[in-house]
Amino acid sequence: MDAKSVDRAGRREEIRLLDERDLRALTAMERVCFSLAWSERTLQRELEAEGALPVGLFWDDKLAAYALLRDIAGEAELLRIGVAPGLRQQGAGARLLTRALELVRERGCARVFLEVRESNGAARRLYGRMGFAEVGRRKGYYEAPAEDAVIMALEG
């Protein structure tokens, strides 16, 4: 599963499954990426959950981005994706999501779903480039601030 390389900026890059040893870094990044961050205990349970696919992208051995997906009855859901604020717009999210989607397909999932804030144009554009299409909305899904969610799906 591990994918190692050197990126254009000369950083050692590794994409691998996250585990218990990454919990502290994952919790810290969760807190800076989300206004309503999941607790360390919630993240630990997610790492251990049946069907969990927690993937991290590391630059020079430091967590730069993560994606928490789960395989549920042959369909996958992207539960969380976060990129360290100082490292955004450098391709980390796209590379991480590309690898995570490869892993989902290897597990036999034919469809991937996600929810994204309506106002998160950067994420919506990224998901669109990856082949996701808008399939619905959830009114008032998000808090802090209150906002609708756009439901997106990727087939195949």
Radius of gyration, Cα only, in angstroms? Answer: 15 Å
Overall morphology: globular
The helix content, as a percent range, equals: 25-40%
Count every beta strand, where a strand is a DSSP E run of 2 or more residues.
8
Strand content: 35-45%
CATH topology of the largest domain: Aminopeptidase
Count helical runs: 4
Strands in their spatial order, largest beta sheet: 1-2-3-4-5-6-8-7
The CATH architecture category of the largest domain equals: 3-Layer(aba) Sandwich
Task: Report, as a whole number of angstroms, the end-to-end distance.
Answer: 21 Å
What structural class do helix, strand and pairing data support? alpha+beta
Q: Could you explain the architecture of this structure?
A:
The chain folds into two domains: 1-96 and 103-109, Gcn5-related N-acetyltransferase (GNAT) (Aminopeptidase, 3-Layer(aba) Sandwich); 110-156, Alpha-Beta Plaits (2-Layer Sandwich). It has four helices and eight strands; from the N terminus they run E-E-H-H-E-E-E-H-E-H-E-E. It has helices spanning 23-33, 40-48, 92-106, 121-129, and strands at 3-6, 12-17, 52-59, 62-72, 75-83, 111-117, 133-142, 147-155. It has an eight-stranded mixed β-sheet with strand order 1-2-3-4-5-6-8-7, with helices on both faces.
